[in-house]
TrEMBL record, chain A:
<keyword id="KW-0472">Membrane</keyword>
<feature type="transmembrane region" description="Helical">
    <location>
        <begin position="181"/>
        <end position="201"/>
    </location>
</feature>
<dbReference type="Pfam" id="PF01578">
    <property type="entry name" value="Cytochrom_C_asm"/>
</dbReference>
<dbReference type="GO" id="GO:0017004">
    <property type="term" value="P:cytochrome complex assembly"/>
</dbReference>
<keyword id="KW-0812">Transmembrane</keyword>
<feature type="transmembrane region" description="Helical">
    <location>
        <begin position="62"/>
        <end position="82"/>
    </location>
</feature>
<protein>
    <submittedName>
        <fullName>Cytochrome c biogenesis protein CcsA</fullName>
    </submittedName>
</protein>
<feature type="transmembrane region" description="Helical">
    <location>
        <begin position="89"/>
        <end position="109"/>
    </location>
</feature>
<dbReference type="InterPro" id="IPR052372">
    <property type="entry name" value="YpjD/HemX"/>
</dbReference>
TrEMBL record, chain B:
<protein>
    <recommendedName>
        <fullName>Glutamyl-tRNA reductase</fullName>
        <ecNumber>1.2.1.70</ecNumber>
    </recommendedName>
</protein>
<feature type="binding site">
    <location>
        <begin position="47"/>
        <end position="50"/>
    </location>
    <ligand>
        <name>substrate</name>
    </ligand>
</feature>
<feature type="binding site">
    <location>
        <position position="104"/>
    </location>
    <ligand>
        <name>substrate</name>
    </ligand>
</feature>
<dbReference type="InterPro" id="IPR006151">
    <property type="entry name" value="Shikm_DH/Glu-tRNA_Rdtase"/>
</dbReference>
<comment type="subunit">
    <text>Homodimer.</text>
</comment>
<feature type="domain" description="Quinate/shikimate 5-dehydrogenase/glutamyl-tRNA reductase">
    <location>
        <begin position="166"/>
        <end position="300"/>
    </location>
</feature>
<feature type="domain" description="Tetrapyrrole biosynthesis glutamyl-tRNA reductase dimerisation">
    <location>
        <begin position="316"/>
        <end position="415"/>
    </location>
</feature>
<dbReference type="InterPro" id="IPR036453">
    <property type="entry name" value="GluRdtase_dimer_dom_sf"/>
</dbReference>
<dbReference type="InterPro" id="IPR018214">
    <property type="entry name" value="GluRdtase_CS"/>
</dbReference>
Length: 272, 441
């Protein structure tokens, strides 16, 4: 049942991606509305599937496939919120393909789930995972917006008044959106780290710094430095966009290292 | 007499070539006085997008050569490579199109008409625009008025200043809360200030070398005037700078703008240079936080929007063709009438002298009635002889065939030689209707 719903949602997202790319070429309110409806419909189907799935899994996605699926869901939910709030449908041309790319492994890796190790059966676990995924999705959107910023800045600097120049939002808007998304993502990441540290503190046995923990800590430090540099030194623009992309890559490494990607059929959920 | 136009514009010449020919007003007057030696008339149109000289001369080749020499001296040999030329009716059409803003960087922009009018007034002041060129300009201005009222080109168009505001919207998410600085309180500065204020700029500073002009403009658009000496301080506080001064050297260089970077803490600066010669050194744009655009960049930008205005421009083009045709007709009528009048004068003079000779030969043997009959016969012969050519000339109209017939009549009856003799006697030499009538444009 949930697989069918996700598959339907995936089709809706796919058509939405085509619609938003068409919007990039030919700006029309009808296309923007169609994109919004398709993403909204896809999210509803996807949400039902996730709700159903997580209900039987104590509120947590299990395995890389579900992780990616939940990431795509949150990424598109953030996008839809931004689209409704700021009415900049062109962002969809960049984010819907990204969400589709995140969903594909979910469809390909369907089924690879493993039982949760007994040491991580914590009541706070669903919150920890949800916030980690929200943070990751926020950083993914921020990185997508960062790509848009870099593209737009190139057009503005090179004075190329082509399609991207006429369609992309202003540099200031993209930079401000990037800042807001990074702040949200950073807050989610900080709480994820805090709950993770709590799990480690309460777990039996010695604590060791693995690759995932290291990547998460470095990503947190990158985003913390970025926010400080923004408010204290006035950093903005291209430099911040590139740092956001780098930070997103680190968080992605942390996300991927939560799973045993070498053996999808035996994907296991790790802990910070 | 023929109208010729020689010039270069944004279509043919890069900014650095146009800059060399962008002369201050006093030098324009000097050039005009050199070019417009009677009977030649001259008009020097100089905007940030074009430099054109219009000449109305009996010897087009000589006038053209003189203009080319002048342009080469001012703009160097390179300038000659970018020139275009129009002659006769094509030159007239070009003048009309320029005045109607159909040849502008931004189709239908309003400033060009004002700029051509200024050039016209300057030409009149210098005594370079007198007769036919004055009438041509007046017709072009009235055509521009018609185009503006009868087509939507004015409404569809964006001025250079409006284009600058649109460009700013690609850097900033609206101008609310932004500080804007307008450097130069001329016509372009005024338009820029109005557009920026209309776009929602929160703070608008105007600076100008003559503070009183800045104050006048600031009062008009709801901004604040600031002394020109504070220029860099004002830029430090600004988000958008639009300059359009007549300065012959750049006001902003990479060094003096770059020095403001530390204080701005990465805050972007959008600079638009509507001046030619440029107020902003191109190197300023290489600063990471500065987005600098000059008039050529704006041309590139508006080229994308040109399609939307193409339809209106087409309608305007039809109006221009109508107005040019009307002007040509009126001119030919104006100048063709003397051919008939002179022909009649000549014929009447011949008839009179022959009647007098005949009456003299017949002596006193004629009574009054007979005398009057002979005089009436002379007039009747003139009338009968001239009736057909007069009717035909009027029937075919002044254009094309009409011009040819009038010219042929002038030549057949020796009116041309008579006119040249008159012109040689009169130093102004501008009233040369026969030649104009025969030569068309």
């Amino acid at each position: 049942m949930s697989h069918t719903l996700v598959s339907l949602a995936c089709h809706a997202y796919g058509i939405a991606a085509v619609v938003y790319l068409a919007y990039l070429v030919r700006q029309s309110e009808a296309l923007a509305t169609a994109g919004r409806v398709l993403v909204g419909g896809g999210l509803a189907l996807h949400g039902v599937a996730l709700f159903e799935l997580l209900g039987v899994q104590s509120g947590r996605p299990v395995g890389l496939a579900q992780g990616f699926s939940a990431l795509a869901f949150l990424l598109l939910a953030i996008f839809l919120f931004l689209d409704v709030r700021y009415r900049r449908p062109v962002i969809g041309a960049f984010l819907t393909p990204l969400a589709l790319a995140a969903l594909l492994p979910g469809l390909l890796l369907q089924g690879g789930q493993a039982p949760l190790p007994p040491g991580v059966r914590q009541p706070l676990l669903p919150l920890h995972i949800t916030l980690a995924l929200v943070g990751l999705a926020a950083f993914a959107v921020a990185a997508g917006v960062g790509v848009m910023y870099v593209l737009m800045e190139r057009q503005v600097k090179a004075k190329r008044f082509g399609l991207l120049f006429s369609r992309l939002p202003s540099l200031e808007f993209l930079d401000t959106l990037n800042r807001r998304l990074v702040v949200w993502g950073f807050m989610a990441l900080s709480i994820t780290l805090a709950t993770g540290a709590f799990f480690v503190g309460t777990a039996p046995g010695p604590w060791t710094v693995d690759g995932k923990t290291l990547a998460t800590l470095v990503a947190w430090a990158v985003f913390a430095a970025l926010l400080v540099a923004r408010s204290v030194a006035g950093w903005r623009g291209r430099r911040v966009a590139f740092l956001t992309m780098a930070g997103f890559c680190l968080v992605m490494v942390s996300f991927l290292s939560s799973y045993d990607v070498s053996s999808p059929s035996a994907a296991t959920l790790g802990m910070p | 007499m023929e109208l010729i136009c020689i010039g270069l514009s944004h279509r043919t010449a890069p900014l650095n070539v146009r800059e060399r020919l962008a002369l201050p007003e006093s030098r324009q007057v000097d050039v005009l006085q050199r070019l417009a030696q009677a009977p030649v008339e001259a008009l020097w149109v100089s905007t940030c997008n074009r430099v054109e000289v219009y000449l109305f001369a009996p010897d087009a080749a000589m006038a053209r050569q003189r203009a080319l020499t002048e342009l080469q001296v001012l703009g160097g040999v390179e300038a000659l490579e970018h020139l275009y030329e129009h002659q006769g009716e094509a030159a007239l059409v070009h003048l009309f199109r320029v005045a109607c803003s159909l040849d502008s960087m931004v189709l239908g922009e309003a400033q060009i008409l004002g700029q051509v009018k200024e050039a016209f007034e300057r030409g009149q002041g210098a005594g370079a625009v007198r007769g036919e060129l004055m009438r041509a300009c007046a017709a072009a201005f009235s055509c521009a008025k018609r185009v503006r009222t009868e087509t939507a080109i004015g409404r569809a168009a964006t001025s250079m200043a409006a284009a600058a505001v649109q460009l700013a919207s690609k850097v900033f998410d609206g101008l609310a809360g932004k500080t804007v600085l307008v450097v130069g309180a001329g016509e372009m500065g005024e338009l820029a200030a109005r557009h920026l204020k209309q776009a929602g700029a929160s703070k608008l500073y105007v600076t100008n070398r003559t503070l009183s002009r800045a104050e006048a403009l600031a009062a008009e658009v709801g901004g604040q005037a600031r002394p020109f000496e504070d220029l860099l301080g004002l830029v430090a506080a600004a988000d958008v700078v639009v300059c359009s001064t007549a300065s012959q050297v750049p006001l902003f260089t990479r060094d003096n703008v770059g020095a403001l970077g530390r204080g701005r803490r990465g805050r972007p600066l959008f600079m638009v240079d509507l001046a030619v010669p440029r107020d902003i050194d191109p190197a300023v744009g290489t600063l990471d936080w500065v987005h600098a655009y000059d008039v050529d960049d704006i041309q590139k930008f508006v080229a994308d929007n040109a399609a939307a205005r193409a339809e209106e421009a087409q309608k305007a083009g039809v109006l221009v063709a109508q107005e040019v045709a009307r002007f040509v007709k009126e001119r030919a009528l104006r100048e063709g009438t003397p051919v008939l009048a002179r022909l009649r004068q000549r014929a009447e003079a011949i008839a009179r002298s022959e009647v007098e000779r005949t009456l003299g030969a017949l002596g006193d043997g004629l009574n009054d009635k007979q005398r009057k009959s002979i005089e009436a016969m002379g007039r009747a012969i003139v009338n009968k002889l001239l009736h057909e050519p007069t009717a035909r000339l009027r029937a075919v109209g002044p254009e094309g065939e009409g011009n040819r017939l009038a010219g042929a009549a002038a030549e057949l009856f020796g009116l041309l030689e008579e006119e040249v003799g008159t012109a040689a006697a009169a130093p102004s030499g501008m009233a040369t209707p026969v030649q104009v009538a025969t030569g068309g444009k």
